[in-house]
Design brief:
By secondary structure, the protein is an alpha/beta fold. It has two domains: 208 residues, Rossmann fold (3-Layer(aba) Sandwich); 96 residues, Rossmann fold (3-Layer(aba) Sandwich). Helices cover 41% and strands 16% of the residues. It is built from 14 helices and ten strands. Strands 1-2-10-7-8-9 form a six-stranded mixed sheet, with helices on both faces. Helix 4 packs across helix 8 and helix 8 packs across helix 9. The chain is globular. The protein starts with 5 loop residues before the first helix and ends in an 11-residue tail after the last helix. The model has no long low-confidence stretch (mean pLDDT 95).
């Protein structure tokens, strides 16, 4: 496939539909006092910042930013295959966008325990090939091996600065506009660190007083789309630690439970990393009386990066049928 021109790329129907510069993809759903215990007590509004309005998921933003930067830097000359290590959404975004940039094949290297729905979305795309390492082989090692083949290039979201820069340019401004100038805190689930770093860089540049909270699973707890401290340390080089004011670590069950509770008030339906971010925000407020006072009369949001319909298997496996129903029915 020949190299596309910039005008051709921007005119491509997929890019036209998924370009984060032109799409208004953030909208906030404010929680009632039933799900927000600080609404009446501290006058703190808490909302789910749905960051996939008009997009399949927020990782489309990262995929677009990384691919566009590489294209503009001439990296894709002589390249026909992108290799993407991913838990699902980033690879899906790259696979959708790649043909517009003259890339004819995408190899997705994904852990074998990734939810089947995420795997199936990749296998539906005819120019994408799914590779799940066997045994003890690591996703990152297999991706490096595949990227060493002629005509191949590794697109590594955990190290690519374009991941955070596109969130600084697009997600941060759109989030602040959706949440309003009274925004006082943002909680972000962390996987690659790109969203939290980029959003923080923008917010701190215009409103240094906004608290940016990073949320991730407790060590050893697997939650789709996010990584615990050990997993982040192993692959992430984006400077997320300097971007956050605090990091909160949350368990798996409480993340899925909160996701189910959010279903009663938040649409589009959100995934388990949204439940994780919401619990992290609530825990931070519970543990920080100074922060509660600082945020009195202000707004706090947690970023919801994708659709909960991607995760029926893990949710059913983690929760009993009646968990999360107390007070809802």
């Amino acid at each position: 496939m020949s190299q596309s021109s910039c005008d051709q790329i921007l005119a491509h129907p997929i890019v036209h539909a998924l370009n984060p510069h032109t799409q208004d993809f953030v909208s906030v759903r404010w929680l009632s006092s039933r799900l927000n215990p600080y609404r009446d007590r501290c006058a703190i509004e808490i909302g789910a910042a749905i960051a996939f309005m008009n997009l399949p998921h927020i990782k489309i933003v990262a995929a677009f930013g990384m691919i566009m930067e590489d294209y503009e830097n001439g990296i894709y000359r002589g390249i026909d295959t992108l290799v993407v290590p991913s838990s699902g959404n980033t690879a899906h975004g790259v696979a959708l966008l790649a043909p517009a940039f003259g890339i004819s094949r995408v190899k997705v290297v994904m852990a074998s325990d990734t939810p089947e729905a995420k795997k199936n979305i990749i296998t539906m795309i005819p120019w994408a090939r799914l590779i799940c390492p066997e045994g003890a082989r690591k996703v990152e090692d297999v991706a490096l091996e595949e990227a060493s083949q002629p005509g191949s290039h590794l697109l590594d979201q955990y190290k690519h600065l374009g991941n955070m820069r596109i969130h600084e340019k697009c997600t941060g401004p759109k989030l602040l506009r959706a949440a309003g100038e009274n925004l006082g805190l943002v909680a972000v689930g962390m996987g690659s660190g790109g969203t939290v770093t980029g959003v923080s860089r923008y917010l701190k540049s215009v409103r240094p007083d906004i608290i940016v909270l990073g949320v991730r699973p407790k060590r050893g707890k697997r939650i789709p789309g996010v990584r615990d401290a050990e997993q982040m340390d192993a692959v992430v080089t984006l400077p997320y630690k300097s971007a956050v004011d605090a990091i909160v670590e949350i368990g798996r069950n409480e993340s899925f439970l909160k996701t189910r509770e959010l279903l009663s008030e938040v649409q589009p339906q959100v995934g388990p990393s949204s439940g994780l971010a919401c619990v992290g925000l609530l825990q931070f407020l519970a543990d920080s009386p100074d922060a509660r006072e600082l945020l009195r009369g202000k707004r706090a949001v947690f970023i919801s990066p994708d659709d909960g319909r991607f995760y029926p298997g893990p949710t059913i496996a983690e929760l009993d049928p009646d968990q999360g129903l107390t007070g809802l029915l």
